[in-house]
Write a structure and sequence with these properties.
Layout (H helix, E strand, L loop, with lengths): L9 H23 L9 H19 L6 H23 L1 H8 L3 E5 L2 E2 L1 H7 L3 H10 L8 E6 L5 E5 L15 H6 L2 E7 L23 E5 L1
Helix pairs in contact: 1-2, 1-3, 2-3, 3-4
Length: 214
């Protein structure tokens, strides 16, 4: 059960194979560039998965040689280098390979079109804002959803009243927030018309309103 169907001598070979594969990975990561050590883009993630798939079989199968793994690693490094070169010269190729950023919050209002395009839920977006110590949308100048899947927040220098990002179940915290005389859309945070002539939000089409918080 512990040794499997391989001879005990194979475990010595596993040590050698692991060392060899480890050295190959070090060289491959160096050749792929410093971005592999940072936050991974789609291309780097695919390269990482391919490297993991390439080294798994030679480490566990005594009948598989190491040369195929070396060839796969070289091909991955070559493709990564070519894509990085093309991306640096053509922005459209960069967008095609790694995606593009989206503005999810603009001047304290949710951009519902971009939310739908990115298939991002309001709950996740609000959680990201709370993680940055943001308690309502009036504190947000811009919130970018980067191609890597991370968020970039630019705070409003002069915060205004806005839609709260505190969960509805946390009533104790909600009661601590000071309500404003401004009325905002419950779904996107856009201010209601001053004359209140329309009950439908012109930004998202919702018809639910509530007081903004400061």
């Amino acid at each position: 059960m512990f040794l499997g169907e391989v001879p005990p001598s194979f475990f010595i070979e596993v040590v050698i194979r692991t060392f060899f594969i480890f050295m190959i990975l070090i060289v491959a990561m160096r050749l792929l560039g410093r971005r592999m050590a940072g936050q991974l883009s789609r291309m780097e993630m695919m390269a990482l998965f391919s490297l993991a798939a390439a080294i798994g079989i030679p480490l566990q199968s005594p009948d598989r040689g190491l040369l195929p793994a070396v060839v796969i690693v070289l091909v991955i490094v070559l493709i990564g280098s070519i894509m990085a070169l093309l991306s640096s010269k053509n922005q459209n190729i960069e967008k095609m390979a790694n995606g593009d950023y989206a503005i999810l919050v603009e001047d304290g209002v949710l951009n519902w079109e971009k939310m739908k395009e990115t298939r991002l839920t309001v709950e996740r977006l609000f959680a990201a804002l709370r993680n940055e110590s943001i308690y309502h949308l009036g504190e947000v100048k811009r919130l970018y959803f980067e191609a890597s899947g991370s968020f970039t927040l630019i705070k409003e220098e002069n915060p205004k009243a806005g839609l709260t990002v505190i969960p509805a179940f946390d009533k104790a915290f909600l009661d601590l927030q000071k309500q404003s005389d401004k009325i905002v859309c419950r779904s996107c945070g856009k201010y209601q018309d001053e004359n209140g002539s329309s009950n439908t939000c012109c930004n998202c089409g919702d018809n639910s309103w509530l007081p903004a918080v400061e």
